[in-house]
C-alpha cells in the first residue's frame, strides 16, 4: 500500500470527524446543559462549590455590563441571566475574526439543602461574578432578587 492512500482525503475526513466528536463530548460534559435556555443563549463558564458554610458560584463574564446581569434565588435554584452586547455591529468597524460569544445568557445552579436565600450576596469584579449563599438555614419559598455589589 502506498503512502498516498494512507493519507488520502477520506483518512483526513475521518480524523476531523473524530476531533469534532471529541470536542462536542467534552463541551457537553463541561457544561450543565439547560434545556430551558433559549437556543441563541451562550453559556459563560462557571464554577460552584460549598466552602465554610456557603454555596459559592463564580461566573466568567468579561465584557458584560453589570447592569445587564440579574441574579435570583428561585425556589431551590440560583438563576443568573444577562446579556453581552454585540460589539462588532458598531459602525465603522470591519472585523476579521469574531470568536467571543454574544447575546443573552442564562445559567441555573441547583442549591444544596439548607441555603438561606435572604443572605445571598453577589459582586461583580474584574469580569467575574461571585455569588455566595449561606448554608445552615431553612429555605424560603418563592423568589428573591440578589442585588449586585
Based on the model shown, name its key terms.
four-stranded antiparallel sheet, 2 domains, Immunoglobulin-like, 149 residues, alpha+beta
Adjacency order of strands in the biggest sheet = 1-2-7-6
Roughly how many Å apart are the termini?
Answer: 67 Å
How many β-strand stretches? 8
Structural classification: alpha+beta
* CATH architecture label of the largest domain: Sandwich
Biggest sheet architecture: 4 strands, antiparallel
Tally of domains: 2
Average pLDDT taken over every residue: 83
Helical residue percent band: 10-25%
Query: Do you know the CATH topology of the largest domain?
Result: Immunoglobulin-like
What's the SSE pattern?
Answer: HHEEEEEEEE
| Low-confidence segments | none
Report the sheet-strand fraction. 25-35%
Tally of separate helices:
2
